[in-house]
Recover the amino acids of this structure.
């Protein structure tokens, strides 16, 4: 009774549908045409048109006149499309559902229709059951159906409005509806979803008084609620009550119990639930195994979890569900337990299981980080021998590792295998391999891949040539880099910023600074604007050659051209000035760096502080060190402290040196406790 006083005008009693409803129904029936005409109408039906009609004042008459006949042939799929079209306006979705429901229960109870309506009400809701909405529906000769009420209640639960759902529930008689098990289930599920488990229990206890018998859905909703709260023993009691009522728990019941026990830290009990589930003849699903394996790892830690789960799997030889193995493999790989993962792979192989490409890739990614490369290659070879086909990413991972070990023969072997497996299916796939080889200084082999690429009918693109130019430039082989540039232009490509920067870098590596600067000046003729990386290559090269003034000129030109310098633009000149013992110029450049809003990095600070200490300008070094400590992004290392301590000691400032020593010890102790 209290609910009626809280919302006295929520659902005012309205007159029963009048003669108008009969007229509308008759008009709907008369609108049906012959089968041929209806088929034509169905073909011309447009969901957007239906949605536009729903927004009009006389929406019911308009949509009924145009879409009543086609709807019989379009079916629920058309309603779903229209609901998705109207998702931004949830009230229009309610109107559409009310209208479509008049054409049969297969519209009102269609799972896809209800899901589309529920998603719209949740994402753009809430839609409250106001007196105006009820009047509008009843004025069209329709009613607030049980199905619509359940969808509304579900949306309120997802939006955290469980209290409002209960307020509407107690006033159902004013809608000329009586409570049913389906409505009770909707209210209970909404309460659980909103975290109001006590309210869900209240409705559950009221069900017998209204002649409603709880079903499997009812109990599952409550089990889900108490498991979320960590009250797993109550969940077990509910399951026993459920079985006592003659209702058989299903896979959802057991999966929620497994997850609940794991979250409560009772992993052994979770395993027991799964065993009981199998004994009862309920087949676990992938979700069940995921809940168990992830939950046990989360609850017990990696080592103990693996021991328990592997022992459990070995004790159930009749269990041939690969999902348990796959989930366990995933957890082992993600926790870098490569040895255990490989051991499990062998056990699966002995049982006749062959890993899929995706799962094998996950295992190999872990193994490559933790195991010997030769052993990883054996795993790959064995997988191929048994009929498996490693994915492109697996081959790239193995090839990168082999290149770092200079094992070129195996690289060629796996490249041939990739070709035979048809993994080179695009220019991008070829470019990825060319990039790996070029970065590992095997540019000639990369060039051979380009030849294979062309013979296979794939034309190299600008990325292909830029990768080769970059590779040759890093090796200092400017002659071959220029040859690739010539080939690039012969094929109609225009050099871009990456092309020029790579060439300039190669010329700088071979100390051809004049040619590098000429190449830099030529960029504008090709319509290519230098970027900060281009300038940094030249600045670093001039500093290395001892021509710091030229580097400073480039830095000034860079700023005049509107290109923002970065920390690398300043670091090279600062280091050069410090080496030349021109500390004032280095400090001046450091100040300019701060003025331009460029944040120094640890390299900048370390270089300048050490140079100041070497010149026994300790106070300035201390000032910069304090500035470094105030930066939350950079942590001073102990070598910098020792530089300052040494400089203080040399100048006879022993007490200050002691203070710095104590500060360093406290800092190290803090870092040790944090670790």
């Amino acid at each position: 009774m209290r609910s009626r006083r809280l919302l006295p005008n929520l659902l005012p009693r309205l007159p029963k549908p009048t003669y108008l409803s009969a007229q509308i129904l008759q008009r709907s029936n008369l609108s049906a045409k012959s089968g041929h005409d209806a088929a034509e109408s169905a073909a011309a039906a447009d969901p957007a048109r239906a949605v536009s009609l729903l927004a009009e004042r006389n929406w019911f008459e308009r949509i009924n006149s145009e879409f009543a006949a086609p709807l019989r042939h379009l079916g629920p799929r058309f309603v779903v499309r229209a609901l998705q079209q109207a998702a931004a306006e949830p009230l229009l979705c309610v109107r559409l559902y009310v209208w479509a429901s008049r054409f049969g229960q297969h519209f009102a109870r269609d799972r896809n229709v209800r899901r589309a309506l529920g998603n719209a009400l949740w994402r753009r809701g809430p839609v409250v059951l106001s007196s105006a909405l009820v009047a509008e529906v009843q004025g069209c000769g329709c009613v607030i159906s049980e199905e619509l009420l359940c969808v509304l209640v579900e949306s309120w639960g997802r939006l955290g409005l469980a209290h409002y759902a209960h307020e509407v529930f107690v006033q159902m008689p004013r809608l000329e509806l009586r409570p049913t098990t389906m409505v009770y289930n909707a209210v209970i599920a909404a309460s659980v979803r909103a975290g109001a488990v006590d309210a869900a229990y209240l409705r559950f206890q009221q069900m017998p008084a209204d002649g409603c018998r709880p079903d499997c859905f009812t109990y599952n909703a409550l089990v889900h609620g108490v498991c979320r709260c960590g009250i797993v023993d109550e969940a077990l009691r509910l399951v026993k009550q459920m079985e006592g009522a003659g209702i058989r728990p299903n896979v959802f019941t057991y999966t929620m119990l497994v997850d609940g026990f794991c979250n409560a830290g009772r992993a052994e009990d979770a395993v027991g639930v799964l065993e009981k589930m199998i004994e009862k003849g309920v087949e676990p699903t992938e979700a069940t195994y995921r809940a168990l394996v992830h939950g046990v790892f989360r609850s017990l830690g990696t080592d103990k979890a693996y021991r328990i789960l592997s022992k459990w799997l070995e004790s159930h030889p009749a269990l041939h569900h690969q999902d348990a193995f796959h989930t366990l493999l995933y957890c082992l790989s993600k926790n870098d337990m490569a040895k255990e993962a490989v051991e499990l792979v062998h056990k699966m192989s002995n049982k006749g299981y062959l890993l899929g490409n995706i799962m094998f890739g996950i295992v190999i990614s872990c193994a490559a980080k933790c195991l010997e490369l030769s052993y990883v290659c054996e795993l790959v070879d064995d997988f191929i021998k048994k009929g498996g086909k490693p994915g492109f990413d697996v081959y790239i991972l193995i090839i990168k590792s082999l290149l770092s070990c200079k094992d070129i023969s195996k690289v060629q072997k796996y490249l041939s295998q990739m070709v035979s497996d048809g993994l080179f299916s695009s220019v991008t796939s070829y470019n990825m391999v060319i990039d790996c080889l070029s970065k590992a200084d095997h540019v000639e082999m990369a060039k051979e891949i380009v030849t294979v690429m062309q013979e296979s009918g794939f034309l190299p693109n600008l990325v292909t040539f830029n990768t080769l130019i970059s590779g040759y430039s890093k090796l200092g082989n400017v002659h071959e880099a220029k040859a690739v540039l010539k080939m690039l232009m012969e094929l109609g490509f225009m050099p871009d910023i990456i092309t020029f920067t790579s060439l300039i870098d190669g010329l700088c590596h071979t100390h051809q600074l004049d040619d590098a600067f000429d190449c830099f000046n030529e960029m504008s003729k090709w319509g290519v604007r230098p970027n900060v990386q281009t300038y940094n290559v030249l600045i670093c090269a001039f500093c290395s050659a001892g021509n710091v003034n030229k580097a400073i000129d480039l830095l000034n030109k860079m700023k005049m051209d509107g290109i923002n310098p970065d920390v690398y633009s300043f670091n090279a000149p600062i280091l050069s000035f410090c080496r030349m013992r021109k500390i004032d110029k280095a400090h001046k450049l450091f100040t300019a760096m701060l003025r331009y809003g460029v944040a120094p990095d640890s390299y900048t600070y370390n270089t300048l502080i050490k140079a100041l200490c070497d010149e026994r300008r300790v106070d300035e070094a201390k000032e910069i060190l304090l500035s470094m400590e105030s930066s939350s992004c950079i942590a001073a290392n102990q070598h910098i402290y020792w530089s300052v301590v040494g400089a203080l000691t040399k100048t006879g400032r022993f007490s200050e040196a002691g203070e710095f020593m104590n500060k360093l010890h406290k800092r190290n102790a803090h870092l040790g406790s944090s670790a």
Notes: DSSP finds 40 helices and no strands in the chain. The chain has a mean pLDDT of 85. The radius of gyration is 37 Å. The longest helix spans residues 654-674.
